[in-house]
Amino acid sequence: MSHNMGNLTIVTEFLLMDFSKNWELQILHAMLFLLIYLMALMGNLLIFTLISLNGHLHTPMYFFLKNLSFLDICLISVTVPKSIANSLSHSCSISYLGCVLQVFLVILFAGSEISFLTVMSYDRYIAICLPLHYETIMTKGSCVRMAVASWFSGGVFGAMYSASTFSLPFCGLKEIHQFFCDVPSLLRISCSEKHIAVYVSVAIGLGLGIFCCISIIISYGHIFSTVLKISDTKGRSKAFSTSLPHLIVFVVFIITGAMAYLNPPLESDSVLDLLLSMFYTVVPPTVNPVIYSLRNKDMKIKFTT
């Protein structure tokens, strides 16, 4: 819906893509999304609750993991429930404000998640490579500061991306070919050729992403070289079991996010775009709890007792 004021069009809502014109397929999509959503919600809530209630798990590693679980709940809750509701109600619309909020929150949670994954790799690096200094470096205060910085960085990027994207004029078609409002799809329907502010935001985001990747690679380089020197196989497998899941989660998250954002905007919208954005908003929150709890002995004991 849009109101004309002279030549200026004020957009009051956008239309999200529906997965199919076929009602049965719409229901199927809603059910599938609901299933994924409930899995992600339960897995992350379980981890969050276990860590909160168990004194033994009040360590820096679990403190960050608890934040990550909370982030994952938030990330998947921003996009999936709305998509389910739209499928079931035959409506594809999302208000302008709703769209701004989705962009802001998705970037906030995704940005914070990258920061947390980086902090967690630093935590593993200290634990495995400098175990004697662990208590003095990873104090409660420094963990809280790192967590605040991670949340804050996400918030700054969220504000930057949403402000730069919605400073663009939107005219003509308001249909976003995506199941939520994300920046690449919005740029495609903007009638402005100049996306400089957005590109600056993307460049800064990319800079942070690259910085986080390099930090994680360096941490893991040190971790693996230290672990391989451990002669005791039990010690070695313990070190791997706390580090590897974290690395896998990071790789999935970064690759899918990068593919979604660095894809040149296509004139025609492809199913690939839809799948990619699903990957970085839906897959990490759903698989993170599985990866962390399956590979982690402390968690397994808590799950079974």
Low-confidence stretches: 4-8
Q: How would you classify the helix and strand content by structural class?
A: mainly alpha
Element string (H = helix, E = strand): EEEHHEHHHEHHHHH
Proportion in helices? over 70%
* Ends apart, CA distance between termini: 55 Å
What gross morphology would you assign? Answer: globular
Q: In the CATH scheme, what's the topology name?
A: Rhopdopsin 7-helix transmembrane proteins
As for the number of domains, it is 1
For the biggest β-sheet, the strand order reads: 4-3-5
Question: On the 0-100 scale, what is the average pLDDT?
Answer: 84
Tally of separate helices: 10
Instruction: Please give the number of β-strands.
Output: 5
Membrane topology: Multi-pass membrane protein
Protein name: Olfactory receptor
Function: Odorant receptor.
GO molecular function, one term: olfactory receptor activity
Written overview of the protein:
This protein is mainly alpha-helical and about 300 residues long. About 75% of the residues lie in helices and about 5% in strands. The strands form two sheets. A three-stranded mixed β-sheet has the order 4-3-5. A two-stranded antiparallel sheet has the order 1-2. Helix 7 packs antiparallel against helix 8 (about 235-260). The termini are far apart.
Distinctive features:
305 residues; mainly alpha; Rhopdopsin 7-helix transmembrane proteins; three-stranded mixed beta sheet; two-stranded antiparallel ribbon; 10 helices; 5 strands; 75% helix; 6% strand; Olfactory_GPCR; membrane; sensory transduction; transducer; Olfact_rcpt
